[in-house]
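Note to self: user wants both folds in one dump. Writing first protein now.
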Amino acid sequence: MKKIGLLNGPNLDRLGKREPEVYGTVTLDQIEDKVKAKAASCDCEVEAFQSNHEGALIDKIHEWADGGFGGLIVNPGGLTHTSVALRDAIVASGLKTVEVHLSNIHAREDFRHRSLVSGIVAAIVAGMGHHGYVSALRYLSEKA
């Protein structure tokens, strides 16, 4: 059974409350439950982790890479546009990675158009809301 990490960055713990017109009303717990339910039918096991702290996210990537995980679904949140360290951790992990964004970052403010992560991941899903996470899982279940 493939192990896939589901990593969510800063402020994603506020989903369902934070700017529902942009991010929707589905909570992070609900997203994690949907992904884990789908994982069972894809012969995958998903472990989810969220933190508002960059170092904790990096430590979790290292842990998953060392623990034999095959894939990573990552929504870096605001760190998408700022964190070279998170990017480097993903590269060093060797994990097949899909970057996910609830909103279409290219249809938003100019500073959101540039992702430091996009150039090193296998695929990017943006603008599909919570459905993007399940799409990422389906991809990794076949490719990781």
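First done. Writing the second protein, which came from a different request thread.
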Amino acid sequence: MATRRGFLAGLLAAGLVPKPGWADVGGPAFLAAAKLPEGGFHLFGLDPAGATLFSVPLPDRGHAAAAHPSRPQVVAFARRPGTFALVIDCMTGKTVAQLDAPEGRHFYGHGIFSVDGSLMFTPENDYEVGQGRIGIWDCDAGYTRVGEFSSHGVGPHDVVRLPGQDILVVANGGIDTHPDSGRTKLNLPTMRPNLSYVDLDGRLIEQVELDPALHHNSIRHLAIRDDGLVAFAMQWQGDTAEHPPLLGLHQIGSAPVLLSAPGDLQPTMKGYGASVAFSGDGQSAGISSSRGNTAHFYDVASAGFATAITAPDVSGLSGTQQGFLATTGLGEVLDIRKNVIQNVSRHPVSWDNHLISI
């Protein structure tokens, strides 16, 4: 008589036993890196209300993460200019693979999977030549590096994918850096940020640049709506007396639309867009500023300003069915509905920059 173990092994070999999915780890809605009170670093999986479902240790400070579209695996990225990213099995908490940036490169803290989850794409800095690259990793072969292509700009900080399509949207921030100079910005007089749409072979489909007067507005972080509308957050590298728009909207084939708060509200952002997100219904867009201790919210259809909230060190931002969830460096999770903070929960951690939707 066949053993139960043998029977299950036969089913697995025949593909009849379903592979673990996100539901098997509680169905987390968000990922966020944080620093613990004792000084260590973890990556957390949070439920839709911001409660902890799991946490796994990181060897150093994390920045953002990417969730595999079907397997309960995440790739946790080191903060720029880190050279490692860890592939973590959220069922066991174990690291199953490590991505190491090639010689002369560093990661920017972000990445994205292909539609089917077979490939991972990582924005990178080729710092000896001052050009952006997108690394390609084969997830089914243990996250082996299998290629790369140009990001079509300098300083590709973030990358997202058009919904249901293998077209990448790259935020080329325009800032050249080198590890020998730390985080010093080496090319501010000549920087030219852009938003580039590329296919998986690296072919440029469309590229958007801002007005030359805004060439100091580094395009940094991205969010995307179900219809392909991209929201991009910017960080101003020019005169601190100027307060340009820090939130932009763009859809492929159209001109970008820049959004700004009225009167004396725009200066409260301190020229710094930390994170950007659409609300769950896609009708609102939000941008946070940890430097300004504020987040601004806009109506997408009219591109008009809606309201602002104040919260110390607010940074991570993501959409929910009711509005937004935000995280702060003080360990708070803010439930924002109708652009008002409805509830605050607290965790004994310091949340890092981003709150990533799964």
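Dump finished. Worth passing along: Residues 22-357 form a domain with the Methylamine Dehydrogenase; Chain H fold (CATH 2.130.10.10).
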